Amino acid sequence: MAADAEAVEQVKSIGEQYKYGFVTDIEIEFAPKGLNEDIVRLISEKKEEPEWMLEWRLKAYRHWLTMEEPKWQKPQYPAIDYQDSYYYAAPKSGDKPKSLDEVDPKLLETYEKLGIPLREQEVLAGVEGAPMVAVDAVFDSVSVATTYKKKLEEQGIIFCSISEAVREHPELVKQYLGSVVPYSDNYFATLNSAVFTDGSFVYIPKGTRCPMELSTYFRINAENTGQFERTLIIADEGSYVSYLEGCTAPQRDENQLHAAVVELVTLDDAEIKYSTVQNWYPGDENGKGGIYNFVTKRAACRGKNSKVSWTQVETGSAITWKYPSCILQGDNSVGEFYSVAITNNAQLADTGTKMIHIGKNTRSRIISKGISAGNADQTYRGLVRIQRGASGARNYTQCDSLLIGDKCGAHTVPYIESQNPSAQVEHEATTSSIGDDQLFYCLQRGMDEEEAVALIVNGFCKEVLQTLPMEFAVEAQKLVGISLEGSVG
Amino acid sequence: MALLEIRNLHATVDDKPIINGLDLTIGGGEVHAIMGPNGSGKSTLSYVLSGRAGYEVTEGEVLFDGKNLLEMEADERAREGVFLAFQYPVEIPGVTGITFLRTAVNAVRQHHGEAPFDAMDFVKFVREKAAGLNVSDDMLKRAVNTGFSGGEKKRMEILQMAALDPKLAILDETDSGLDIDALKVVADGVNAMRTKERGLLVITHYQRLLDYIVPDHVHVLAKGRIVKSGGKELALELEESGYAEFLEDAA
């Protein structure tokens, strides 16, 4: 094609297009580089944690020392030097602000640039009927602000940073932390258990429908810093919450590790809808820099008729490696996984889900849309396990891959294990490329190539994008277009 | 100045010559029909004019509204006012007709320095255009051409043409796959768009369509060249005699 040379140019310029790649110039307090028991103690101390929390961290740390980094994944990466990283970085002034007025204006500016409203009054002053979103903003290792806390408290809803929850609601944290992802679960989850610095905590009381979207915004700013956030959400009997997490990081030449753990618990008749828009810095077009996004996300549907729905839009990170999963313990419980993963240039992804059917008549649904462009390589890896007692269990899985160009790859690795003859498991998979005819059809109607690709890919992802909360769906659609800029020639 | 002026056009597909020295001039307000047997280069001509990748022009020139058309990319030609109604409209799963149309119309509007439509205004705009074409709101909410019947696809093409308001519309075998009722709806839609300024190039294998969209000029295309031109009566003659004589002549 005549446009090839041009396309190459466009692809080259992509690394410069990550619009969240700015650095906030702010005074940061670091713990010394490296990882040892003293660092773990220091983090615990900084967070003013009770003894039991420190003990749990140390147990995890000691266990971590005995573990080996897994190697079974498809994306390979150079060995990480765990001693060459900071495990605690906090904006000096932003340590424990009582109100937003005490937060460093530079931080507020950062979130403004990112489009995250932290000032409730500004949100309230907006158009009447505009959706309210409560936000917990995490900057490197600390939570800077949680909005709408008061309003939520009126209904008994707890929404705060995990550090605060450890101090203020120890009985809940003690009961549930590590109950879905044990401290010994896997290499990165264990590391997280030892050194997690912040994250969000949500508790929705019995019979309560959370009146607004809850949202956490993660931002890695400091150099050579790993971000280990920990999120714990508990939906008590008959409750409902919709939660969204978003992430960005500055553009840096070094790789930065992000090893988060998210645990969700639903009791009888409760439902959690968890949406992620992940846009960490993906590295430049040659694969230099970018975030290693190695995350453990798992939900336990403990109660009968409970439901967890994961939606993820993964467009960032140099390497994405995660499998948001559901353990369907309660009878009639439902697990859903909707995923859009876009990899461009040198990005790599190995992502999917695990649905473990334990209770009777449990149902799961997996819709995965993978888009690869440039030299990117992507793997869907999923496990559907029907245990002996899960009579009447049903699963439906659909994995569609879309390839743009001829240098990228897509792989599908579904594992299906069934120990119950009454279970029904369906798996469908397709691989396609953006057809020349589709592209030409759009061009002939006056759209330029980027617009055309964004339109076609958004159509391809529609089933997943429409599961996002309204106010984020539009953003996600734009992000799809931005992530693929210049990928077609 | 003519709207479209094609001079000594030669074009290849996969290095195989398909168009071999074609001349054609279309003035504003004129309807030209190109007829010809299968493999004569009819569809290739429509793709060459609209700038599809893989259709290589090896010789000749094409002026559109005084501008060198061949220098423009496909999308630029579209924004400048060249519209192709596809013989086989393409399915775009997951993209609703209304979104597709709005993206297209706004791209063209912005090219001409006009403000893009917001969603509400656009619905109003499209409904007006759609009314005469028997295109319902429901059809606009479905994914573009996905699961459409032949008639629905062609009506959607004509709706796009009406919405984009091109200077030159090329209809590539628009009659294929249509029953007589659907053909009438489509032809009425096209006739409603005949203006003093707009040029129409109707490509067809059969004379049938030309009963409804009556051309000013008819050309016979064989082996990549126009071998005979005449008025609308030429189409009737061809219906009688077939294309055999032109195939021999050109051979």
Low-confidence stretches of chain B at least 5 residues in length (pLDDT < 50)?
Answer: none
Radius of gyration of chain A from the CA trace? 22 Å
State which percent range the strand residues of chain A make up: 25-35%
Which shape of chain A, going by the Cα principal axes?
globular
What does the largest sheet of chain B look like? 6 strands, mixed
Largest interface pair: A-B, 27 and 31 residues
Number of helices of chain B: 10
| Overall spatial form of chain B | globular
The count of DSSP E runs of length 2 or more, i.e. the number of strands of chain A, is: 23
Give the termini separation of chain A: 7 Å
Instruction: Provide the helix percentage of chain B.
Output: 25-40%
Oligomerization category of the chains in this entry: heterodimer
Describe the structure.
The complex is a heterodimer of chains A (489) and B (251). With 489 residues, chain A is an alpha/beta fold. Helices cover 24% and strands 34% of the residues of chain A. Chain A has twelve helices and 23 strands. Chain A has helices spanning 4-12, 37-46, 51-65, 105-113, 120-124, 149-153, 162-168, 170-176, 187-195, 436-444, 449-465, 470-483, and strands spanning 28-30, 89-91, 133-139, 142-146, 158-161, 200-204, 213-219, 230-235, 240-248, 255-258, 261-266, 271-278, 290-301, 307-314, 319-322, 325-328, 334-343, 348-357, 363-372, 377-386, 394-403, 409-418, 424-433. In chain A, strands 5, 6, 8, 10, 11, 13, 15, 16, 18, 20 and 22 form an eleven-stranded mixed β-sheet that branches. The N and C termini of chain A lie close together (7 Å). In chain B, helix 3 (97-111) packs parallel to helix 6 and helix 6 (150-164) packs parallel to helix 7 (180-191). With 251 residues, chain B is of the alpha/beta class. Chain B is globular. Chains A and B meet through helix 10 and helix 11 of A and helix 2, strand 7 and helix 3 of B.
